Amino acid sequence: MSTTLLIGVMPIVSSRRASHRGLGSIFGSFAGAAFLVLLPVLLKNVLVGGLGWSTSLAAHIELMIVGALIVLFLIVEPHGLAQLWRLAKEKLRLWPFPH
Questions:
Q1: Residue 42 to residue 64: CA distance in whole angstroms
Q2: 17 and 75 in contact (C-beta within 8 Å)?
Q3: What pLDDT, in 10s, does the model give residues 48-71?
Q4: Which of 12, 13, 67, 88 has its CA 20 to 30 A from that of 52?
Q5: Quick one: average pLDDT of 8-23?
Q6: CB–CB of 74/20 below 8 Å?
Q7: 23-26: which pairs have CB atoms within 8 A and are 24 or more residues apart?
């Protein structure tokens, strides 16, 4: 079983036990899996195709960027992408009149 599949499936399986909204949300599971799958593809296309770097250098830089972003998300937003999405929706709903 691939790692990406496990990343997407494990939070769904454990959502019954999760009491907070981060791991318990189905959208967060899919958003996190999409983030971890699509970001390296995007980085590879930009670094190799756009900037013309060698594939070996791009692979190392890609791993460093993805790892740094994972650590940054764990520190800055521990509730994940789903919480950021909920906050953005709430702010847009109240946008013209924040009171």
A1: 14
A2: no
A3: 988 888 999 999 999 999 999 889
A4: 67
A5: 44
A6: no
A7: 23/80, 25/80, 25/82
How many CB atoms within 10 Å of residue 80? 22
Average pLDDT for the chain:
76
Q: What's the CA gap between 92 and 77, in Å, rounded?
A: 19
State the Cα–Cα distance between residues 23 and 79, nearest whole angstrom.
8
Whole-angstrom distance, CA of residue 33 vs CA of residue 75: 19
Distance of alpha carbon 11 from alpha carbon 73, whole angstroms: 17
**DSSP letters of 64-95?**
HHHHHHHHHHHHH-TTHHHHHHHHHHHHHHTS
pTM equals 0.56
Angle at 44 between CA 73 and CA 76, to 5 degrees: 5
What is the predicted pLDDT for the residue at 64? 93
Amino acid at 29: S
Give the pLDDT confidence score for residue 65 in this predicted structure. 92
